[in-house]
Structure to design on (211 residues):
């Protein structure tokens, strides 16, 4: 238990440093433009540092976490994608950054106030809604493009959302939070698995949709 607490403290410290770096070099919170799409190669299929695609969750099913709050307006759509986090937001490229226990960061952390709307990146199907120790409240979206998207540290889902449900690009699906190992630093940890395979750097995907 002591070792686990020390690892959690190390993660929080790393995230705090990331917040400081992002404050100095944050990407503006805009939805304009669509830079070139990110590459879809590379990545590992082992478990994510936030409890991603191949992680065994502590809780399964399609529970409606967070009190079943109602959906708000959808996000602006740029081409066929939408930024997964509402405004205000900030983020930077920390893919591959070291984490405790020899792990590497496999997502992009999009910082935003607690409760900020979380949106479907593209048209697709919600395949799983669950919780796990590292990620907290989480969601998986299988896009029509074949890509799999992992959302975690959520504070809850939009009321009525369930596993197996079709969603449209920009649809409000959840709320930003700090569950799992993100206590005190609300943000969306967002992963992209091209073709449903191994992880790729999600930063270009965020840039394409969020500006």
């Amino acid at each position: 238990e002591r070792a686990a607490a020390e690892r959690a403290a190390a993660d929080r410290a790393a995230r705090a440093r990331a917040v400081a770096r992002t404050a100095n070099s944050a990407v503006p919170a805009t939805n304009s433009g669509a830079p070139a799409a990110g590459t879809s190669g590379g990545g590992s299929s082992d478990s994510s540092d936030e409890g991603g695609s191949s992680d065994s969750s502590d809780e399964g099913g399609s529970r409606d976490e967070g009190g079943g709050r109602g959906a708000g307006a959808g996000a602006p759509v740029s081409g066929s994608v939408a930024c997964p986090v509402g405004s205000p937001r900030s983020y930077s490229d920390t893919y591959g950054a070291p984490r405790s226990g020899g792990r590497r960061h496999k997502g992009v952390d999009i910082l935003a106030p607690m409760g900020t709307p979380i949106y479907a990146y593209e048209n697709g199907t919600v395949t799983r809604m669950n919780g796990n120790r590292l990620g907290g409240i989480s969601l998986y979206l299988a896009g029509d493009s074949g890509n799999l998207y992992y959302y975690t540290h959520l504070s809850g889902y939009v009321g009525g959302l369930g596993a197996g449900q079709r969603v449209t690009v920009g649809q409000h699906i959840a709320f930003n939070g700090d569950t799992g190992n993100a206590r005190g630093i609300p943000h969306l940890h967002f992963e992209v698995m091209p073709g449903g395979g191994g992880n790729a750097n999600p930063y270009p995907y965020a840039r394409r949709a969020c500006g």
Observations:
- Helices lie at 2-25, 203-210.
